[in-house]
Amino acid sequence: METGIKYFEDNQWLIGEEKFRTDWLGKAETIMCLGNGYLGIRSATEESYIGETRNTFVAGTFNKFDDNEVTELPNVPDLIGMDFRLNNQRLDLTLGTVSEYQRTLNLKTGELIRSFVWEYQEIKARFTFRRFASFSNKHLIAQKVEIQNLGVPLTIEVISGINGQVSNSGSQHFTEGDKALSEGKYMQMMPYTSQSNIFFVLSTVHKIAKEHDIYDETKKRIEMGRRKIYNRYWLDLDQNESVSIEKISSIHTSIDLETSGKTLEEVKNSSLVELKQAEELGYQALHEESKNAWDKQVWSVLPITIESENIKDQLAVNFAKYHLHVMTPAHDERMNIGAKGMSGEGYKGHTFWDTEIFMLPYFTFTHPEIAKKLVTYRYLGLEGAHKKAAENGFEGAQFPWEAAWPDDGETTPVWGAADIITGKPTKIWSGFIEQHITSDVAFGMKQFMDVTGDKTFSREKGYEVILDTAKFWASRLEWQEANQRYEILEVVGPDEYKEHVDNNAFTNYTAHWNITLAMKLYEELKANDPEVFDRLNKKLDLTRVYNEWQEKVAKLYLPQPNKDKVLPQDDTYLSKPIIDLTKYKNDAHVGTLFHEYNLDQVNNLQATKQADVLLLLFLFEDLFPKEEKLINWNYYEPKTLHDSSLSLSTHAILAADLGKLEESYELFNKALDIDMGENMTSSNEGIHAASLGGIWQMTVFGYGGVRCLDGKLRIEPHLPKAWNKLSFGIIWQNNPLTIEITKEQMTIVNHGEKEVEIESFGKSYTIKEEIIITL
Amino acid sequence: METGIKYFEDNQWLIGEEKFRTDWLGKAETIMCLGNGYLGIRSATEESYIGETRNTFVAGTFNKFDDNEVTELPNVPDLIGMDFRLNNQRLDLTLGTVSEYQRTLNLKTGELIRSFVWEYQEIKARFTFRRFASFSNKHLIAQKVEIQNLGVPLTIEVISGINGQVSNSGSQHFTEGDKALSEGKYMQMMPYTSQSNIFFVLSTVHKIAKEHDIYDETKKRIEMGRRKIYNRYWLDLDQNESVSIEKISSIHTSIDLETSGKTLEEVKNSSLVELKQAEELGYQALHEESKNAWDKQVWSVLPITIESENIKDQLAVNFAKYHLHVMTPAHDERMNIGAKGMSGEGYKGHTFWDTEIFMLPYFTFTHPEIAKKLVTYRYLGLEGAHKKAAENGFEGAQFPWEAAWPDDGETTPVWGAADIITGKPTKIWSGFIEQHITSDVAFGMKQFMDVTGDKTFSREKGYEVILDTAKFWASRLEWQEANQRYEILEVVGPDEYKEHVDNNAFTNYTAHWNITLAMKLYEELKANDPEVFDRLNKKLDLTRVYNEWQEKVAKLYLPQPNKDKVLPQDDTYLSKPIIDLTKYKNDAHVGTLFHEYNLDQVNNLQATKQADVLLLLFLFEDLFPKEEKLINWNYYEPKTLHDSSLSLSTHAILAADLGKLEESYELFNKALDIDMGENMTSSNEGIHAASLGGIWQMTVFGYGGVRCLDGKLRIEPHLPKAWNKLSFGIIWQNNPLTIEITKEQMTIVNHGEKEVEIESFGKSYTIKEEIIITL
């Protein structure tokens, strides 16, 4: 398969393309998307092409199109688009000859650069486009276009402004809003979201090097159309003459923390002041500030270095970290990470278990201050979780499968894509019965509390989440008279190709863990922290609930390995037919099984979408002995299609744990390919956020061997053959540790103030300053 | 200026293009648009291009996006779009070599045909696309695509279905709606309008000649996306092999007369039955039916024949008639004609005075049964007109400047495009103060009653409109103590470049006419038709109002010619500066004055947008002697920019009346060019409906010399130099007359049952069967 992605052997920071093909627009838009956690911009080109998806999202600004749809991140009026007409011919790279083409995203600086020479008829010109979303002032977006005329004299018409005609695949979330122009060049548009009533202030200005052109009123014209405001500039370029056009834009909304309580008029005015300051500074200076912020906030923090035969490994880690920071709303604890970040409409900006199980660990171990916001979001979500539990006849906090604004409750759409046999839309059961999300939230919370040791947070928020989720689980258990035990029936486990199953192992074990943890916490708080205990006891009626926990957890059914030591994924999985899945597993496209089977049919095969039992064995690695894990790995891996991007990394880590380093590294490479691979359409709807967390986890948990087990730090590295050295860092209970691993030894340096205890290959170590362990 | 419009010297029925340029998409989409009065479809190509506007509208289905917007015709999910991938290369005419390209609309049959040979890399194929909107079953749209493979073996992927992601420039009027698939190929989509709550049932099916392909499940795949349902077909074509793909679609809505009271489920089912029948018949047979309906309903009815040196003249008349029937909802009196028909988003599908003054006369004189529906629409609009009058503190019926659903009342948007100086949106005053619409409605009504002699309609509906509008005018007049007379202050006349003027001549004279007419009617009814008189007297309080009329009309100020015999357009017009407008008048683009002046500035020049005083002199030709008309023509024509498409035809007719045949014919040709001329962007927002009515009027009223004056028929022809013969027909009070005019004589044949009286050049004639008048 032809691939359009370009790596650079000598540069671990660049990802890009050297060929422009409109069939590949989606890939480039997604994997080179820009953002800063406040906003995300797909990297659609300035000029438009059929097949593009022109998206800008601002975290947390959810809106519901109508009562038949669920809330989603609305596609904000476009600030990026610019049209160019050269001697009245529209710039269009599908026409004429394009040479010296290159588009690259610099992961380190967050700058997207596109350059080429375009020849069409008598026109010949070199274009260089630069842009970034500022990492220092998260409201700012800056672009710079340089055009060098290499041919006949040109009149270049630039048409650029703010375009509010964009939508979410046809659903329009915005009122048209007011438009305004100041001093003939500062353009603003102020739409409202239609249901959540959030106002946006979008501002833009152009700064053109040929000053006499921009200030010559006969050479520009302001135009306003429906949902549009833009300027036309006519620039004359003699042969070899160049011009640069900077476009500086900003976005503010009424839910920004800093605009809280301000009127639209006030925000409009302050945006204009800010825009003028940014215009004054100009592209280059703004970019310096942004680059420094990237360095300070991301790249200088516990850097990861891989010495590998394959440059792609290091690149992938940089790629993952870049996108994790681009997509994570670190500025506001009322927001969380979308399953596609803010790089596409897929999953509507909603937050899933992907956060706790896949992305959160990166932040927990390296950016605890950001992780704290992400777990606080779940604490703020308790109200919505109570709502959901009550709606379903349960107690406590049942977290929504898909979450948007914290108190929204469940936001999973009810209907999905068409069934190929019946042609009818498929019901999405996740929102109803994919209930393991609640223990996943508890898991992420516990990991955060253990790794950071943040007692204040735990006492104020974390403990409550653990207790409240356990309360849900207790009410959820169903007494089965015939079996004389509690069971959990009619669920979807992590493997979404098995709907309405009973006693999904992952669900039952994690529910059991959640309740057991809550019981232990209850006892500890009662004994040692009466203040917190009394408050929570009063709020959650703990004493009554504790008795229920005691009774129920003892009788909760935990599926046991069969005679072959295979842990059954659910009550019926192991009795279903097995088919050869090789051809589907080898297809670069996921979901190809569905070209031949429908969901009902797949439901009745031993075909697993994604890590399920194996995820349980990874997350709770003490549950089963290594031998059984190996048996289960051998059993489930061939039956796992990895049709979810939440799968390969788990298998890769587990394989590494089990010493299958060759298979692990193969899976590692497949996992990188989810977004960086040869399938040029896999990322069309947005980046695979969980997979990016997975890249970090494969590196640090898999090959670095880091694990937080029952509140203790364990580090048992095993490098794949291709790697000579791996160094990375984590923060353990406020102590930054840097770890350098070679095939021979591991060096851990403690940069913190306190001693750190670790376990490694059965031994315990105390690290004061530095320790070297021979491998 | 390069032009893309192609005429055919030997064919008066074809208009088209022989060059494909994406800059010209809008022109082709508009002037070759399809429709049947029930629906209108812009002729966007099957495959998509940047710059296209993909519109389908269904008459009367108005919806309001939100409370800040006015109601408009929503852009219906697209049924026309089809994507083709040849060996995985998307069909795109901007790429490779296109030869033998031709796109033509056959005005006679309503069929749009596009054909070309496309060569790109190793691909070479001939494509022929045909489509029509059925004129016999107005819910049906049919397409046929033939592909002949002229190169290497091809796998052609066809992606086609229903696309609900379209919007009105970003405003989405529809809920997503349910999607359904029957028997693997019948696709349906059932969205609702968001505010008016009208449901739509859109259905489509493909019929592929290579039957083994369409029925081979492995060679097709149904897909549903957000607001989308479509099939993918993979067709294999060896060299020289051909395939044809028919796509048959239908649209029904809950406001269709025949679905009244039916549920969505019922309409969905009946649509499916109808679709299957249409599929069975196939493209060719469906087209025969449609073509016959065009012949029967349009082309065989009082045909117009022009023997001219210029084929374009005859073509233009055919073009005008084609579009007048395409845009006119002849099926439902609750609907009227939009100012852009249903060929674009411009003016939102709203009805203006354009109907009465420009398009209605065509129907009144040739299709009285359709005209009756159009005037009935105004009768149904009385409720909205009362609402508007009451809101403004007036009595009676004040018709809205822009009308949508009959009882909506005023639907003119309040804000328009940006002022180039201030950058702020311009307030649209028409909805508030362009009040002549009310007498225009009365004028159209009176003409309809006079020409058709339809007493039943008059007694039931027509008289009431005349009386109720007069009642409005009486309440509208303002007593000016200083002048001791009634005046009409603060209006916009037909010339919209003069806002807030006092005593616009057109407005004052037509108001005076309206009241005078009502008084006469009052007296006649009172004397001769007590039943109708009593009913209307009771309903409208006529006796009181009649006294008011008597008092006021005698004192209503009618602007008088100045010492140079120029009739002042308003109180201040003649005192404003005069500038040379030649350069703007000669520009093929309208509105170019606004690149240099803003509306306030233009307000203060003797620069007129469109026929104003001259329109008055045309419509009420007895008001002033010919000599004064000539003076006024000479005065106002150089000051008239013809920036409205409601202008040139009036000047052309008046010039013909005044014996200025050469100037008239020049204006005639300019008028044709509004849509058919070399300005390739003038029709982007839709066709100029009034201008099309103007083409008919220039022909029949201008050169045919037909006029209905004070209830009498007058025919005084004068052919332009280029014309040898003109024949046409009208229906005078139920009697079809055919009129043949040469330079020497006029022959009138009366095909009706009664004698017809006419006047011609000062003489009266009675036509029993045939009459020949020497010219």
TrEMBL record, chains A, B:
One GO MF term attached to the UniProt entry: carbohydrate binding
InterPro entries associated with the record: 6-hairpin_glycosidase_sf (IPR008928), 6hp_glycosidase-like_sf (IPR012341), Gal_mutarotase_sf_dom (IPR011013), GH65_N (IPR037018), Glyco_hydro_65_C (IPR005194), Glyco_hydro_65_M (IPR005195), Glyco_hydro_65_N (IPR005196), Malt_Pase/Glycosyl_Hdrlase (IPR017045)
Binding site for substrate: W353, D354, K609, Q610
Alphabetical keyword list: Glycosyltransferase, Transferase
The name this protein goes by in its record: Trehalase
A Pfam family recorded for this sequence: Glyco_hydro_65N
Matching SUPFAM superfamilies: Galactose mutarotase-like, Six-hairpin glycosidases
Sequence intervals crossing the membrane: none
Lineage per the UniProt record: Bacteria, Bacillati, Bacillota, Bacilli, Lactobacillales
Originating species: Enterococcus termitis
Catalytic residues as annotated in Swiss-Prot or TrEMBL: E496
UniProt KW Glycosyltransferase keyword: yes
Family: Belongs to the glycosyl hydrolase 65 family.
Domain Glycoside hydrolase family 65 C-terminal residue range list: 707-766
Location of the Glycoside hydrolase family 65 N-terminal domain: 17-254
